[in-house]
UniProtKB/TrEMBL annotation:
It is a lipid-anchor. The keyword Nucleotide-binding applies. It is found in: Endomembrane system; Membrane. Keywords: GTP-binding, Lipoprotein, Membrane, Nucleotide-binding, Prenylation. The small GTPases Rab are key regulators in vesicle trafficking. This is Ras-related protein Rab. GO terms for cellular component: late endosome; lysosome; membrane; phagocytic vesicle; trans-Golgi network. Its main location: membrane. InterPro entries: P-loop_NTPase, Rab29/Rab38/Rab32, Small_GTP-bd, Small_GTPase. Belongs to the small GTPase superfamily. Rab family. Pfam families: Ras. GO terms for biological process: endosome to lysosome transport; phagosome-lysosome fusion. GO terms for molecular function: GTP binding; GTPase activity.
Amino acid sequence: MQNHHLKEHLYKILVIGDLGVGKTSIIKRYVHQNFSANYRATIGVDFALKVLSLEHETVRLQLWDIAGQERFGNMTRVYYREAVGAFIVFDVTRPSTFEAVKKWKEDLDAKLNLSNGKRVTAVLLANKCDEGRDVLTNNGIRMEQFCQENGFVGCFETSAKENINIDEAAQCLVKHIIANEKDLLQSEVSDTISPQQETGRGGTCSMCFTS
Ligand code: GTP
Ligand code: MG
């Protein structure tokens, strides 16, 4: 075993947000590299595993794909237990799903207490950016402010359909989780801007904050 010295991590990651925003599609794209235009609502919760081989560690992401309809149920407390990270997803074409982001974040912070007293590491995903930007993501500064006010460590415009920014968003989340664990937020997390921002395609809501 040559890699016996590599660190191994298993992280439970939640994927939450309103009905039909694309949570299952994002996971499918990230883990299985495919996409389907057919909508089948998730019932309860589904699971997927993504393995990342980083330079000094192997990271296993156990992704919990929680049905949008669970916001109105009582199960989220059970599903959230022991999670260390979360993607909160909205649909850029439907303003109501953005309004729900705060509710999801509050639900998360209220029900999930980390042992170190911190809030769970959360990244905001503005999904379906292939369908246009609509009202919400036109103003990058406002999104940045929204993220900082609501305790998100990053925000990405994503498309499960066209495979935009999903890897970048996951990298941002993992970096912050690892940095949190090590309790150092220095050089490793200092490349704050996702390369996608420069292409003019990902645009105004693609950033990973340093802390
Ligand atoms: P629930 O399980 O009900 O909570 O929904 P969900 O958030 O898992 O949504 P799902 O991934 O099932 O996607 C809902 C619909 O949106 C499907 O028809 C997808 O094909 C479509 N969709 C998902 N992501 C994208 C995207 O990035 N772009 C476009 N154009 N459509 C997408
Ligand atoms: Mg689903």
